[in-house]
Write a structure and sequence with these properties.
about 80 residues; single chain; globular
């Protein structure tokens, strides 16, 4: 089990990013939270098997259809 803190920068609010992240994380059997930040970024805390957390991160680099991810910051927790 690992826990990652991921911050997504770009056009990531108002495009279903949180909802689709929660759906994908749930599909992968992960636990955690997704939050919109005041500066327009999205913060994700994801915990579960390393392979599944990596799958979520890879999927979220593209995000939902209307999102435009400019950069991603990932930290171990």
């Amino acid at each position: 089990m690992i826990r990652k803190h991921i911050r997504f920068y770009g056009w990531v609010q108002g495009v279903g990013f949180r909802w689709t992240c929660m759906e994908e994380g749930s599909r992968l059997g992960l636990v955690g939270e997704v939050s919109n930040l005041d500066d327009g970024d999205v913060e994700v805390l994801a915990q579960g098997p390393a392979d599944d957390v990596s799958r979520l991160i890879a999927w979220l680099y593209h995000g939902p259809r209307w999102a435009s991810v400019a950069s991603v910051q990932i930290e171990e927790r």
